[in-house]
Amino acid sequence: MEIYIFVLAEIVYARYTILIHKLGNMGIVAGAIECGQLYIYGFFRGAGR
């Protein structure tokens, strides 16, 4: 399960980097929202075991 979250985080990070290059400050905001959702999802998956 931890490996899955790690891989998912890598994918999100790559997309986040691309968004920053394309959108500038808006990319940072979009990436932060997406990362926040990932952390919340990961937390609930971990707590739900």
Automatic annotation (TrEMBL):
Protein name, per record: Uncharacterized protein
